[in-house]
Amino acid sequence: MSLWHRAERVPPLPAQVRAGLGLRRGERLLAHGGRPDGGWAIATTAAVVLVDPVEGPTPGPGTPSLRRLWHEVAEAGWDPDAEAVYIRWADGGAGTTVQLIPPHGRFPEVLRERVMSTFVLSERIPVQGRRGVTVAVRRHAVNGSLFTQTVPDSGVNPSHEPVAEQVAALTRDLCEQVGLRP
Fold first, then answer.
1. What is the C-alpha to C-alpha distance for residues 112 and 76, in angstroms, rounded to an integer?
2. Could you say which DSSP state residue 71 is in?
3. Cα 68 from Cα 165, distance rounded (Å)
4. 108 in the same domain as 129
5. In angstroms, rounded to a whole number, what is the distance separating the alpha carbons of residues 3 and 105?
6. Predicted model pTM
7. For the chain, what is the domain count?
């Protein structure tokens, strides 16, 4: 199992990648990791960012190909055997797997921590076997406002009765617990 060690030094981000991030006011770079294809995986205080490599007269890293705020990530984790992070999106879009090259630095750890920091309350409704729906109150990664989010597992329709009734009841309950209007 690959663990993070302080001695593990990740090469610095190339200047053109850092400049191309377009960090917003108050946003800081937290961690990054190199990818086997020459791209980068980057964690900022607000978002996960992927920078793909570019081919051409001057090959190297390009500008961000993906930038998603932390509250848009349903879950994220690290597979040490594959040396890859996986990301499941809250909007149900196709998940993303990003392989990293050693040294991995703190990127896998920061990825998970930032996603988890947006969850205030969450509860799962089992629907069929291990599949279900997660209803959560989350904190917006930039402005800190609270909102509800419903994330069904693949193949689960949260608008299908009686699942929709359970989702509505759980949403009301979670909102009541944090003083949020449903």
1. 6
2. G
3. 30
4. no
5. 9
6. 0.88
7. 2
